[in-house]
């Protein structure tokens, strides 16, 4: 459709450098499920292309002075972008949301004393979390806070959020898919803490962001939410040697723990029913993969030398609307009664079919036995003839007598000598 050529310098950007100063991936797809757009970061520009003509929108790039990073909304044609501080702090850093294709800025937030920013979109595009690392006044240390954008609400309100200890190092952050909760691994010790939060107010909390719980001292440095939400795997990769904890966020309880020694990859299947852990060939030993149930039961294990990659087969999008899925979830008991009755009817039908099948087998067996009994009776006279008139069919009526017999076992001969002279 289109070819992009150039040296590494032609693709370099002002921030987040990769190999040879190139920010990877160079092209980032966006616009939601329709894949209407893709974009790439350049020097002071973001170039946005449409996927019908593969040409620049409006034949020109979006000019953003000193832009260093951007990210697409997973569901809407919205770009979030970050511009660092300029002029030694005289011009603050900036987070902006830009609507495509009109390229209009729909929300902006100025940020001060910024060291770095990371952007995390929730998969439904409802929320955007911006992790902001800031310098203290002395600029000798860094603390972290979050700017939480509520994308779907009017005027896109922003809420400032900090951990109980804002000096904690942030190790990992992850949104619950299709949900309103998020998890954060934080701390400086060898066993960090894991906190869970919700974007909905709890117990009349003044802040709309509410903490659900904090798990202390966990061997984890990565978070893997189930695609269906509710369940999460707290994983200890690299230095933690593949520790796994399966956690139910609804009940705030651990379902199971496990270990896949030296695991390099963790992947939920699209349904959220199974989890795969793998050791790829970056390690020379223990290559292979394991399959786990959502609640932490190991159900399959394969060792395979030079194992490189594991991927689940993707599933097509649901045919149900989000509203219909929510309705089913809310009224699950009512739907369950209907289908339980249908299941019971089917079960009874199967029971009846099984009863009829067994009756047929019994009838076949009895017919087979009757056939051979009749044949046995028909051949009775012939058997008597073969046995000299003896009716062997009535052997159980014969009389038995016990006879005792003496048997000579051995005979011993004895020789006796006499002295004749004495007689």
Fold and architecture overview:
- The protein has 423 residues and is an alpha+beta fold.
- Among the domains are: 155 residues, Methylamine Dehydrogenase, Chain H; 29 residues.
- It is built from 3 helices and 24 strands.
- The protein has a 4-stranded antiparallel beta sheet with strand order 1-2-3-4, with no helix packed on it. Strands 5-6-7-8 form a 4-stranded antiparallel beta sheet, with no helix packed on it. Strands 9-10-11-12 form a 4-stranded antiparallel beta sheet, with no helix packed on it.
- The longest helix has 47 residues.
- This is Eukaryotic translation initiation factor 3 subunit B.
Number of strands: 24
**Helix percent band:** 10-25%
The fraction of residues assigned to DSSP E strands is 25-35%
Q: Spell out the helices and strands N to C.
A: EEEEEEEEEEEEEEEEEEEEEEEEHHH
Please describe the biggest sheet, giving its number of strands, its sense, and whether it closes into a barrel.
4 strands, antiparallel
- Low-confidence segments, given as residue ranges, are 14-20
CATH topology of the domain at 163-317: Methylamine Dehydrogenase, Chain H
Please identify, by name, the CATH architecture of the domain at 163-317: 7 Propeller
End-to-end separation: 147 Å
Text of the CATH class of the domain at 163-317: Mainly Beta
Q: Please state the CA-atom Rg, rounded to the nearest Å.
A: 41 Å
Q: What is the average per-residue confidence, as pLDDT, rounded to a whole number?
A: 87
What is the overall shape?
elongated
Sheet with the most strands: spatial strand order: 1-2-3-4
- Helix vs. strand class: alpha+beta
The CATH homologous superfamily of the domain at 163-317? YVTN repeat-like/Quinoprotein amine dehydrogenase
Output the number of helix runs: 3
Family: Belongs to the eIF-3 subunit B family.
Pfam family, one: eIF2A
Main location: cytoplasm
GO molecular function: RNA binding; translation initiation factor activity; translation initiation factor binding
């Amino acid at each position: 459709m289109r070819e992009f050529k150039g040296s590494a310098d032609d693709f370099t950007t002002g921030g987040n450098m990769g190999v040879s100063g190139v920010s990877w991936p160079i092209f980032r797809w966006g616009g939601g499920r329709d894949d209407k757009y893709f974009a790439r970061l350049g020097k002071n520009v973001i170039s946005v292309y449409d996927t019908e003509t593969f040409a620049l929108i409006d034949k020109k790039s979006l000019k953003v002075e000193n832009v260093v990073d951007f990210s697409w909304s997973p569901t809407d044609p919205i770009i979030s972008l970050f511009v660092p501080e300029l002029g030694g702090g005289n011009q603050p850093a900036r987070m902006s949301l830009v609507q495509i294709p009109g390229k209009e800025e729909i929300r902006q937030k100025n940020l001060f004393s910024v060291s770095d920013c990371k952007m995390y979109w929730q998969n439904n595009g409802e929320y955007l979390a911006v992790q902001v690392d800031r310098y203290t006044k002395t600029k000798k240390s860094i603390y972290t806070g979050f700017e939480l954008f509520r994308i779907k609400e009017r005027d896109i309100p922003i809420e400032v959020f900090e951990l109980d200890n804002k000096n904690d190092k942030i190790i990992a952050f992850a949104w619950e898919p299709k949900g309103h909760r998020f998890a954060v691994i934080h701390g400086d010790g060898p066993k960090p803490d894991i906190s869970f939060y919700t974007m909905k107010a709890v117990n009349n909390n003044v802040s709309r962001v509410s903490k659900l719980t904090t798990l202390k001292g966990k061997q984890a440095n990565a978070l893997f939410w189930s695609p269906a939400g509710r369940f999460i795997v707290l994983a200890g990769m690299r230095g933690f040697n593949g520790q796994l904890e399966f956690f139910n966020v609804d009940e705030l309880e651990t379902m199971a723990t496990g270990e896949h020694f030296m695991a390099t990859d963790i992947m939920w299947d699209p349904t959220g029913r199974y989890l795969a852990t793998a050791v790829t060939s970056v390690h020379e030993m223990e290559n292979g993969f394991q399959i786990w149930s959502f609640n932490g039961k190991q159900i399959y294990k394969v060792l395979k030398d030079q194992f490189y990659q594991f991927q689940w087969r993707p599933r097509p999008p649901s045919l149900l609307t989000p509203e219909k899925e929510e309705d089913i979830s809310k009224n699950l008991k009512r739907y369950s009664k209907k289908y339980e009755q249908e299941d019971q009817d089917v079960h009874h039908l199967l029971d009846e079919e099984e009863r009829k099948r067994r009756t047929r087998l019994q009838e076949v067996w009895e017919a087979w036995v009757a056939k051979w009994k009749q044949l046995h009776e028909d051949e009775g006279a012939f058997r008597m003839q073969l046995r000299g008139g003896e009716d062997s069919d009535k052997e159980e009526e014969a009389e038995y007598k016990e006879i005792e017999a003496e048997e000579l076992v051995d005979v011993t001969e004895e020789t006796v000598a006499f002295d004749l002279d004495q007689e």
